[in-house]
Amino acid sequence: MNAELKKSLNHTMLESYRYNREKTEAIDKMQITFHCCGAGYYKDWRASRWLRLDKNTENKTPDSCCRTPSDGCAKRDHPSNIYHKGCARKLEEFFRDNLYIIGSVGLGLCCLQIIGTALACCLMQRVKWGTRLQ
Description:
CATH architecture: Orthogonal Bundle
Order of helices and strands: HHHH
Number of strands: 0
Structural class: mainly alpha
CATH class: Mainly Alpha
Shape: elongated
Number of domains: 1
Strand content: under 5%
CATH superfamily: Tetraspanin
Largest sheet: none
Radius of gyration: 24 Å
Oligomer: single chain
CATH topology: Cd81 Antigen, Extracellular Domain, Chain: A
Helix content: 55-70%
């Protein structure tokens, strides 16, 4: 899962950051929440469309990679300043840690669907028998 997640995340980050508002906001929120930067490593950002085309920025990464995010904080990519670990590994850990909760919720919803279907069948039979008796 890690390789596919990393590949997809890397493509989204490198091609969509600053060019798609929703994806940019999601990437920033993910990097701040999970204390990570880039898909596999913070240096992934060097190949991004945003840094290649925006000649006005001095940033090495987005500001959301900073340990204390602020405007222009990512001009230095020193370990004391930005997160170096990639987000793919952090997301995979998050999914793995919460898999039981996700599975339990899914199983609970499945049971509710089955109970609802059974009750609907009972109601249908009752209505059917009720019309025959009259």
